[in-house]
Amino acid sequence: MSRKPYALLAAAALLPLGAAAQAAAATQPPPAQPAACTYTPAVPADNFKGIPVFDPAKAAKPYRATLRTNQGAITFRALTDKAPCTTYSFKFLAQHAYFNRTHCHRLTTKGIYVLQCGDPTGTGSGGPGYSFPDENLAGATYPAGTVAMANAGPNTNGSQFFFVWKDTKLPPAYTPFGKVTGGLKVLQKIAAGGEDDQNGPGDGFPKLAVNIKRVHIVSR
């Protein structure tokens, strides 16, 4: 079975930026009603850590996540009340060291402004071995500091996510599940370093390599 890139704006292409992003936002149909939280086996299964079993009581507990990177620490508050399926999956992966010794493989600096991470293969097509439904999409916006899921189409969430480092217009198709509370300047420093345009102008691998050493979860 072929791998699908987990991208923004299109499942099979990495390049639609700028005006195309705004056009997509204008024409995006209303988001479907969220499905129940179910983690479904899926390929690929890179660095497989198992498949979580959703526990609503545990999923409701607030937490903060801190990514320790070589460029500095980035902390976000998990939106457990709005995206419990997503935040439960992220915590499961983090607590199983899934993100340790991985790197953020994509930086965009034109039209949309994000740093994409969470792929242990570093190719943009890796995943944890399961998928789960979209949530928290009604009226979703993507201001600076948003943490949201990358995907390969509706309800294909896995391990890849992105930080928004500057206010960005996107269609409400990417589950927002966190808000940066510390380290926005770290993200802006990475963005200021530029990217290599390997996917097209303003879209490529960050020139300042971003290596995730570990992810620390603190319950509140």
TrEMBL record:
Q: Which residues form the signal peptide?
A: 1-25
Tell me the keywords, alphabetical order. Isomerase, Rotamase, Signal
Reaction catalysed? [protein]-peptidylproline (omega=180) = [protein]-peptidylproline (omega=0)
Q: InterPro entries recorded for this chain? A: Cyclophilin-like_dom_sf, Cyclophilin-type_PPIase_dom, Cyclophilin_A-like
Q: CDD domains from the xrefs?
A: cyclophilin
From the record, give the transmembrane residue ranges. none
The molecular function terms of the Gene Ontology recorded here are: peptidyl-prolyl cis-trans isomerase activity
Q: What EC numbers are recorded for this enzyme?
A: 5.2.1.8
Output the Gene3D superfamilies linked to this UniProt entry.
Answer: Cyclophilin-like (2.40.100.10)
* Keyword Repeat included in the entry's annotation: no
Where in the numbering of this chain does the PPIase cyclophilin-type domain appear? 72-217
Matches recorded under SUPFAM superfamilies: Cyclophilin-like
Function in brief: PPIases accelerate the folding of proteins. It catalyzes the cis-trans isomerization of proline imidic peptide bonds in oligopeptides.
Family listed: Belongs to the cyclophilin-type PPIase family.
Designated name of the protein = Peptidyl-prolyl cis-trans isomerase
In its UniProt entry, the species of origin is given as Streptomyces orinoci (Streptoverticillium orinoci)
Q: What is the lineage of its organism?
A: Bacteria, Bacillati, Actinomycetota, Actinomycetes, Kitasatosporales
